[in-house]
Structures
1.
Amino acid sequence: MENGSNMNKPLRKTKAILIDIIHPRITKQQSLDRLEELEDLVETYGGIVVVKTHQRRFRPHTKTFIGPGKVQDILREGQELGVTLVIVNNILKSRQIYELQEILRGAKIDVWDRVDLILKIFAKHARTTEARLEIELASIRHMGPRIFGMGMELSRQAGGIGTVGIGEQNTQIMKRHLQTQELKIKEKLTRYTNVRANHRLHRKRQQFKTVSLVGYTNAGKTSLLNALTGSQEYVANKLFATLDTRVSQLFLANTQKKVLLSDTIGFIQNLPPELIHAFESTLSEAMDSDLLLHVIDSQDTKWIPKIEVVEKILEQLGLDLKPRILVFNKIDGLGKKDLKNFQKVSIKKDDHDWPKVFVSATHGNGLEALKEMIEQTLFPQ
């Protein structure tokens, strides 16, 4: 169940306004950086951003999040430019979504928050039944509270004396329906979890070591999996191109051993815990692995804060102490001088003293060094 009339339509050709709330002390560049990733998300899904704007506030407006004056500005701009969607770069409360929808309804402008957009991208890129179930579960958990607005709408539409309880009654019915749906999805996901657990048990009996690729979305994890194992998994220069776990064999020449290498969903900043937990079934490969390869895009100017985002999520998953190698990918885009400078900075910025390696998944640079590092970590002499 999704909020608004346009939520089930593709975002292609949809003109969108992006709006963010920033603290008065945040710089203009920082505010632009915050909206840049949101714009990338919109483009990944297929939309067109026609306006990026922000409002400086010490705290969000209680009813509309962005304040009534800013809502009216967006309403006027949206009508002039033919906008049909407003996306707020945060997680909104059900009441705030409802209030914004009510104000913009007459102009046929829908309202999403950041999580709505991420869920739509997830749904677009999911390829397996398990991933689709996990997305459906996350959607129910995110959309569920919005039946508040639906209940209010039902009461208002009914109108008249003696009909006050109609919305509340329907809200309760919808709550029960969502709870039932959530239980059914959890039961189905449990079957996949059990299958995965049996597979992992079998690997342990066969004494297979496992390695998992983790990292910020679009860091090149799938490209690295393909380069190391010879697989031909789907690769795209887009956020969240991979949602499903893929497992391939990696042969280590020095020890003549095979290990299992798994790809996982990419992480992103401001991802709420309920979305992370919804993907625990898929992330279970990483949670049970012997070694993590934290893949980092060395061409990304924001690589330092993105490392921090990934580390924070790994901590939420209980993986903060799991052995790992920091794999700085895409070095082919750096000149020799830039690469040397980057290596110095990256080593200096590492607070954990994890092993580091610099590679290019597309050109093959550094892959042998990475394999040797994996061997030394998993099979120390």
2.
Amino acid sequence: MLKKEFSLRKQKDFENVFNRGVYFSEKFLILKAVKNSLPFSRFGFVISKKISKKAVERNKVKRLMSESIRLSQEKIKSGFDIVFISKVGIVDKNFEEVNELIEKLLKKLGLL
């Protein structure tokens, strides 16, 4: 689990990323990112009810993405607010597949 200081939690922060952020997409995941003025990067995850009606499955996806970020956090450049938005079909993926998707998106943006 990510520490609280590395998480985007305020609606204002999410809106900033959605309105001004750079957009990259893969088959099951979208990344939006914007620079911040902090010495570290912060991360947010959006898993809508379109993904699954069951909260258990949505929370599992969020935990998988959070753990992937936590493990590769030292390699990620600092100074960005990054939001991952899940797409339909990600519920069926295991940790390795989710981790691979996240790494692809971060490399596209040039953060790894």
3.
Amino acid sequence: MNSNIKRLYELSNKSHRRVIGLMSGTSIDGLDVVDCICYGTGIDTKIEILHFETVAYQEDFKKEIKSIFSKRAVDLQKVCLLNSWVAEHHANIIIDCLKKWKVESDSIDLIASHGQTIYHAPKNLHGLDNFSNATLQIGDGDHLAVKTGIITISDFRQKHIAAGGEGAPLAVYGDYFLFSKKGENRILLNIGGIANFTKLPGDLNRSEVLSTDTGPGNTLMDAYIQENFEEKYFDDQSTIASKGIINEALLTSLKKNIFFEKKFPKTTGPELFNLSYIEEAKLAAGIPTLSHEDMMATLNRFSADTIVQAIIACTKGWDDIKIYCSGGGIHNTLLIRNIQEQLPNVGFSTTETIGIDPNAKEAVLFAVLANETVAGENNSIGNMETGHPLVKMGKISFPN
């Protein structure tokens, strides 16, 4: 038997697997690296986090990614070069983390790599009759596997699309396995560049589980800050937005997009919600100029309102809802307050209270997907009526 296939077979039969989960989001601020143990599979999955760190990207890395990120016209040679370059960069981060944590690479069973999204093109965005949903992440799994010597599972989103999904959000699978609780209606809200949530009914009815993007989380606010404030990447502690006044005309204009009228679940990205989107909304509202403070206050409220409206629309008939938050947006105090004030009867906390560091959650979820790829049985979740195909995702790359 091929030694790699034998190794994979052995891993699939273990009671647990030690996985390095990687997540690099659309904010392109750093790589989340989690070292965790996955016990069991499916609804019986349990996670033990051993180490976690977010490794900030250097300026040259950010610059290279942004040169091709979310752009329809790019240098194709640059895309090819960065596919392996990103993987090598991520491999070096893994090697450095293992050294720092004093962990031998031989003790790691799998790497689960999300890669770096450079373009997301669901049909609801591109609107081309002859083409279906599409998405592209770079950071090749073979390069990761060869450089680290660890079997790597990557490129998760392609199987989701091949099976009829939009390639996002994928959190629904791990959220259902890890966080469903009988007797409690839960919303797992993740606020990254794009905000999304998973709906987990307290009766554990799989057919009602749903995961969807809601629209912008941090992406518009971060883009505006980076465009207008030198050496700033985000509105730290909501300092700028907190000094502003919401411009109601602009807020109304920002909400006038067909994306918000489409049925759930749905996906989107910075391909839609970007600086051009802001300028077009300003033009439509007849607002040529606005102070930075008022603009940030309005963008903050825009993200909050679209998150709240989506949650309300998807939880009709629910009582005693608990929302568990994760992602970088949890540190935006004004954004969280704007959400909470509109949902006064809903309990709020972070995923820390249910056992997962909210900063590590997305990296953990990809570790769970990799665990399912290798060892999952027929107890997965899937319901095409809610946009979630029954599928196990990820491509397998061997070290040699």
4.
Amino acid sequence: MIRKVLVGVSAAAALLALSAGSAQAQTKLKIGTPAAPESPWGQVFKTWKKAVEAKTNNAVSFDFFFNSTQGTESTMVDKMKAGQLDGAALTSVGLGKIDKRLLAIQVPGAVRSWKAVDAVRAAIGPEYDKFLTDKKFVPIAYADVGQAHFLSKGFAVHQPDDLKGKSPWVYSEDPILKTVYAKIGGVNPFPAELMSVLPNIDNGKINCLSIGALAAEMLQWNSKFDNAVDQVNAILVGGLVMSTDSLDKLPGDQKAAVLDTGKSMVTAATGLKNRIRNEDAAAWNRFKSRTGVTIYAPTADDIAKWEVVFKASRDALKAGTFDPGLVSKIESVGAANK
């Protein structure tokens, strides 16, 4: 009898040890993002986590750090390089911190429709992948943020000169909008990181910006503005990347599971691509229907004046910031897919 009890205890102990070993063996990959957990991006990321856990039998999972809790996009890139984060969901500005050429897709006026985004990504995708892999990053998925419109507070933006004397927000490390405002002249752009924008709208230091409606809604900026332009001035995009070193530590089947489910995260019928584009359009319609908001439809003359500024800005960016051949390709493909 005593022997049976001892055998039973030994078996139970072995099971507990095995269970503990399995729990300890789970690899947790740390992913930073500016998105909120309840946002469309956050919800899709949670679905991706479940898919990876299912495909790896819980051997791999994710710890998502939402709401920029791992710092600015620049900080998150530095943390990936230092091994403190395994991956991050970034806007183009954040990707540009890895390699500035990754920001070129947002040169002003070149890509202004989802059709153009898809065509440009197809044309430059292999180059973008190489820019990342050369810097020891793996592109998990390229993703969208939204169609950017000018939003303003207390005044309307019809033509470029309407921004003179105003203080539009720019990302601290974004050379594109800084170049646009320099070409207009007399504009006082206010550089700030994402989480610093709202208080600076409230205190009046930022009185206009170019942003997608869904992002503005998620960040609670939309209610702060009473004027907007019913014209897309840019498509805001980004991507989710991971450190090559982090992925290479996984066994081959687990690494494949992360990569395969990551691609599906975008391309599935309910994935990021369709969801963000549809929800961004719905958010823009909600903004336009708000009481007290004036929506301006630009005239042909307005559009022509903006095109002059955008063209001058692209030429300046070609001359000193981006590879001219890459920008020319983006311009050409974008123009053919308006």
